[in-house]
Specification:
alpha/beta; 14% strand
Length: 220
């Protein structure tokens, strides 16, 4: 019996990661684009051949249109985070429609978003109805290291690495050096552990989930 166990352990150790059960995770970045932080992040993602999902604010797309175009051109997914970053759960239907339409009008040409992420993740029935009307799923998250509140990249990384599971959606931001540093180190460490990074829509596809307008998704 001991020989059998030893043989199985050895077989696992010599089996390439790609031949083992695959683990997928989606990194998502809120509140951008944000100039040099977004550029730094995109450089790191390109170097690692990783695709991510960016939930963009309309007013920031106006400030950084080149960064928004680069996100799309490099094959990343773009979703809506509203125009003003105000709480959507407190908006009227008319206000919500304007938030979404004003942001959609600024997206890079040809971009058809699949997701809305309300600021702060706060939504109401009115938000759900607006998402249905716009044919958008509502993308929440399952891992939140609160990177926006910390300048400790190592702590941010360890929170994610210590909790992430196959199918998780990780909430991050491209708004500071520490967040970008943490994101890239998360990729490096989890890649060593056999994780593959994909966009949110690709994660849903790989898990056999059809994105439905107005449906809330925390993980796949």
């Amino acid at each position: 019996m001991r020989r059998i166990i030893t043989a199985l352990i050895c077989l696992f150790l010599v089996t390439p990661v790609s031949a083992r059960a695959e683990k997928y995770v989606a990194l998502t970045f809120d509140d951008g684009p944000s100039g040099r932080f977004t550029r730094q992040l995109l450089d790191g993602l390109a170097e690692r051949e990783v695709k991510a999902t960016f939930l963009l604010c309309g007013y920031r797309i106006k400030d950084y249109p080149q960064e928004a175009r680069r996100i799309a051109q490099e094959g990343h997914e773009i979703g809506l985070h509203g125009y003003s970053h105000r709480c959507m759960a407190k908006m009227t239907p008319a206000q919500l429609e304007k938030e979404l339409q004003d942001t959609l009008a600024l997206l890079p040409e040809g971009n058809q978003p699949a997701f809305l992420r309300p600021p702060g993740g706060k939504y109401s029935q009115t938000v759900i109805d607006a998402a249905k009307k716009a044919k958008l799923g509502i993308l929440s998250w399952s891992v939140d290291p609160r990177d926006w509140a910390s300048d400790d990249a190592s702590a941010i990384r360890e929170t994610v690495v210590g909790t992430v599971r196959d199918g998780d959606v990780v909430l991050l931001h491209d708004m500071s050096d520490s967040s970008v540093e943490a994101a890239l180190s998360i990729i490096d460490q989890l890649t060593e552990q056999g994780f593959t990074f994909v966009t949110a829509t690709e994660l849903a596809r790989r898990k056999g989930i059809t994105i439905r307008p107005g449906q809330v998704y925390e993980r796949f």
